[in-house]
Amino acid sequence: MSIHMASPILSLSNDFDLLNLLTSSPPKSSFSTHAGAGTGKYKRREAPLDPLLLAAAISSGPHVTRHHYHHHHTVPATDDLLPDTPTVTVDATMPSALASIDPPKPKYKSAQAPRSQRVKIGSNGTNENKENQREPLVGTSAGNLPQRRPRGPSLLQNSFVTSSTALSANSSSPPVVGAGPPPPSPFILSASPQTISTPVIRNLPPAPLQVQCMARTRIPTPHGPAFLHLYRNNKDDKEHLAFVIDPAQLEDNNDVDVSTFIRSASLDAKWSEDEAEIDRLTRGAYVGRLSPATHRASKPSESSSSQPSSAPLPPLVRIHSECFTGETIGSMRCDCGEQLDEALRLISSPASSSSPGRGAVIYLRQEGRGIGLLSKIRAYNLQDMGHDTVQANLLLGHGADERRYDIAAAIMRDLGLERVELLTNNPDKVKSLEKEGITVAKRRGMVPRSWQQQSHSHEHPMAGGEEGRIDGATLIGGGAAHGPELEKYLRTKVERMGHMLDLPPS
Ligand SMILES: Nc1nc2c(ncn2[C@@H]2O[C@H](COP(=O)(O)OP(=O)(O)OP(=O)(O)O)[C@@H](O)[C@H]2O)c(=O)[nH]1
């Protein structure tokens, strides 16, 4: 081993030198040791720069002090590990310098008995495992229902009951159904331990997708009132949203055809026999407009399972994917903020003089086309190095687009939106929805505002103050995004992702 330091100069040419340093008198080196150091085997270590401490620090790391350099700093032997010793996962994209100093992973040894022993049936025919007795593991299509289930919407009861979410049937807590992710694997103890002598573990098909609207509220937006719906589901742990625009629901007019209202069936459902009216009102299961003077809880029958065919026009719907950068901080690398703003504006615009605009934005938490914000930020750096959005995703080991639309379709079904006019340029969205049984009666394209502007004028879209400002630009990120990065982003969508949009002549 050879360790060289620039200053003070300490050169240890081999292990022997280091050993000498640790066990005998300090080396003759360019820095001075304490003049009065003893002469025995173990010297007093009072030098301004203690060579012993320095050697220990060099060999073990800068965290070593004279008080603890004797401690064991290497990976402990497997037997010394506590059962819950955390394992460190090294991110593949971690800088290699960091990855290379990562110690070898200790062999993890679980203190838990093998599962076969834990579910072992005792001689008296009962399961000896107390936890299993309290809370049987529950799957969706198992046939055997949980003995104790939480109060809450019936839709997800079977698939969401886990030991952490189960409450007593008498609990008055708000529903926790769907509060946690579904069980990690669809294994189920198929029969009660009291009736059989050996447990049968059956591998079930994955539970069918279910969504549940947990709450709804009115949001006044720059484009008019909207109802914000928060959904949970049994496939991912994201809180997907739906903005419903249906101002007729707020009118106090008996002539309105309530069957055309866009309402969530899972929200209007009865969640328990003894549900109090205040609980229904609080979660948004009400009709009309809430005010200190008026509040009427909805009835399950109030939401139709699908929009009636008598409805004049299919509601206008946009499926929008989350984009923190474009929507929240107004990034002009993309037009996402603008698209969200434009979608709310178009849906809110009256379809005719007699019918107000109606429809919904289904807002999916699929940041960065499903790759997540961390990867999207990395992708931006690759884009700065000359790659387009597709190449950047691929270079990071992702697909060009990792999104799915099955949850969107389930939310649309819950809202009765089974036949719609879809606001998109993206052919994947149309195909995926149709595959899920949603009828896309019509598609309306979304032309970027900067491109709309280009066809009218050669001016910069935001130039010229209010005259240059495009109608409807209201939200942060909603102002007409523009710039070379946006141009490249939009062109990549058209040229590489098949978006149905005409490129502007320039
Ligand atoms: N990976 C990646 N994702 C991006 C980038 N820029 C924007 N996004 C994401 O792209 C998605 C945009 O999705 P949508 O608004 O649904 O738009 P779209 O798929 O282009 O389809 P339409 O707008 O309906 O035509 C959002 O999830 C953004 O976060 C990028 O440079 N890289």
Automatic annotation (TrEMBL):
Domain GTP cyclohydrolase II stretches: 309-443
Pfam (any one): GTP_cyclohydro2
Annotated GO MF terms: GTP binding; GTP cyclohydrolase II activity
Listed SUPFAM superfamilies: RibA-like
Matching InterPro entries: GTP_cyclohydro_II, RibA, RibA-like_sf
Bias (Low complexity) ranges: 75-91, 300-310
Biased composition, class Basic and acidic residues, residue ranges: 456-466
Swiss-Prot/TrEMBL catalytic activity: GTP + 4 H2O = 2,5-diamino-6-hydroxy-4-(5-phosphoribosylamino)-pyrimidine + formate + 2 phosphate + 3 H(+)
Spans annotated as Disordered: 65-156, 289-314, 446-466
Bias (Basic residues) ranges: 65-74
Biological processes, Gene Ontology terms: riboflavin biosynthetic process
Pathway of action: Cofactor biosynthesis; riboflavin biosynthesis
Keyword Transcription attributed: no
EC number per UniProt: 3.5.4.25
Keywords: GTP-binding, Hydrolase, Nucleotide-binding, Riboflavin biosynthesis
Family, similarity comment: Belongs to the GTP cyclohydrolase II family.
Record-given protein name: GTP cyclohydrolase II
Provenance organism: Serendipita vermifera MAFF 305830
